[in-house]
Amino acid sequence: MIRTYDDLLNMLDDQLMAERTFDWNEFYKDRNKKIPFFINAPDENLVSYFQQKMIQPQKVLELGCGPGRNALYLAQQGCDVDAVDRSTEGLKWGEERSKEMGLDVQFRNEDIFNLDVEKASYDLVYDSGCFHHIAPHRRMNYLELLNKSLKPGGHFALTCFVENGPLGGSSMEDWEVYEQRSLQGGLGFTPEKLQTIFQDFEVIEIREMNAFEGEDLFGVEGLLTALFRKV
């Protein structure tokens, strides 16, 4: 029986079980795969935020950190970083990288929706590639996590699929997700959609990611980057 709000969320989770059971451990096992974001380089937009002094965080929470390329960059900038992911293989890789680089990152193997965070404890929440894999009904929990974890005036930065972009980015409407019982590999977004979802935050910048070649920065076509501030 559906008696509570949590019952409803769990029912909708079950509707999209195939999405939730994707094997990220298997995905990260072969580190030699030609996956663009397997390089140990930070997002170009994240680097630009620091270079332009748009953010100066001390304590950072990264959601869906994978092997930790952005978490490690943040640690290099002197940040105290908590990096969360469900994949033990991804976190193992990140921990190995952090030891090789002599950096301290708190890698946490947890589901972001079960994450216990202290209220108003982070200056920055960073998400590179997690949000577009989240079903529409879980956005409410996502926003609750942002509002709980961020300090007043803190920043939230996001990198996600462009709608109908070269990397995918489905343009399906939210109700179609449940009709088809699929996110079609990841939902795509437009600046207008992001502004609607995060309407309680101040928009600092929304733009497409700049493409880069080489191993110093990660930048590819087909991703949208956004920086918001908690009002």
From TrEMBL:
InterPro entries: CFA/CMAS, Methyltransf_25, SAM-dependent_MTases_sf
Record-linked SUPFAM superfamilies: S-adenosyl-L-methionine-dependent methyltransferases
Keyword annotations: Methyltransferase, Transferase
Entry keyword Transferase: yes
Domain Methyltransferase: 60-154
Superkingdom of origin: Bacteria
Name of this protein: Class I SAM-dependent methyltransferase
Organism listed in the record: Thalassobacillus hwangdonensis
GO biological process entries: methylation
Gene3D superfamilies, A to Z: Vaccinia Virus protein VP39
Molecular-function annotations in GO: methyltransferase activity
